From TrEMBL:
CDD domains: THUMP_THUMPD1_like. Residues 148-261 form the THUMP domain. InterPro entries: THUMP_dom, THUMPD1-like. Keywords: RNA-binding. This is THUMP domain-containing protein. It holds the Pfam family THUMP. The keyword 4Fe-4S does not apply. SMART domains: THUMP. Residues 1-30 are annotated as: Disordered. It comes from Saccharomyces uvarum (Yeast).
Length: 290
């Protein structure tokens, strides 16, 4: 009996070791897109569910936009409209040391699909890379508004759990994080035409296969940049009742960032599709009982 318990214990330890595997996927700096968590071992099915959902939303928001139109997007829009995006793009291309529109081996222009799913080979996570005209945080918010609508009781996803947009990303180095943070948080905290009052904010960091920079070092640096020297604003940290939440997604050698509003937590349940529908189904059941 003792031997059997020892063998079982060994198998349990072996299974425990296999529970978390190191990801072999990779994201380039300068990438924008959407992370999605999902049920374990259903990453591919979740990506398929999201592909249908995202393509439908893309058609609704942007209509039929072919690759050529996407490729000439910079030329078709005014400099004023793209000033922030162009600045981010320029900064991140400098960090990469290459033109993101060119293939690194052939030098040819890449085909610019607005939605491209990337296999991160990471348990419970999938990623969709986005291109213009998509703005990830606006795109995801539009989807969450549809899903949170009380009249919408048809759940179209089975394996998808939480969606997290990232505006842009950079390599996992502090100096590049500082540059990225200044560009991403600037419109939300430092633009006088948009920011008319001091805001309450929080920073949320998620790390996967990532140990380059400590979590608190990231948080402290971002908080410092929100209230940087010379700024007339006096934004304050509030972990519960924030007006803005800065999301930082760390994956291997990549750091992504975006800013969402306070209803991210209150109205949209941290963009958790499962929780939104569970809440709606529960409310529906309560009405039936009454």
């Amino acid at each position: 009996m003792g031997e059997k318990r020892n063998r079982d214990s060994g198998n349990a330890n072996s299974q425990k070791k296999k529970k978390f595997k190191v990801s072999t996927g990779f994201l380039d700096p300068g990438t924008s897109g959407i992370y999605a968590t999902c049920s374990r071992r259903h990453e591919r099915q979740a990506a398929q569910e999201l592909q249908l959902l995202f393509e439908e939303k893309f058609q609704e928001l942007y209509g039929d936009i072919n690759d050529d139109e996407n490729g000439s997007d910079d030329d078709s829009k005014g400099e004023e409209e793209l000033s922030i995006e162009d600045q981010i793009k320029k900064e991140l291309q400098e960090l990469k040391g290459e033109d993101s529109n060119k293939d690194s081996t052939s030098g040819e222009t890449k085909k610019k699909d607005p939605l491209t799913f990337i296999d991160l080979n990471c348990e419970c996570v999938t990623f969709c890379k986005t291109r213009k005209p998509i703005v990830p945080e606006e795109f995801v918010l539009s989807i969450m508004k549809d899903l949170a609508d009380p009249k919408n009781m048809v759940k179209r996803t089975r394996y998808v759990q939480k969606l997290t947009p990232i505006t842009y990303s950079c390599n996992a180095k502090m100096e590049q994080l500082i540059k990225l943070a200044n560009l991403v948080i600037g419109p939300h905290f430092h633009d006088p035409s948009k920011v008319t009052k001091d805001l309450k904010f929080a920073v949320e960091v998620t790390r996967r296969n990532f140990n380059t920079i400590e979590r608190m070092d990231i948080i402290n640096q971002v908080v410092k940049l929100v209230n940087k020297e010379g700024s007339e604003s006096n934004h304050t940290v509030d972990l519960k009742n924030y007006d803005k939440l800065i999301l930082v997604e760390c994956f291997k050698s990549n750091i992504g960032m975006c800013v969402v509003d306070g209803d991210y937590k209150t109205k949209y349940r941290k963009y958790n599709v499962q929780q939104i529908y569970e809440s709606k189904f529960q409310e529906d059941d309560d009405k039936d009982v009454k």
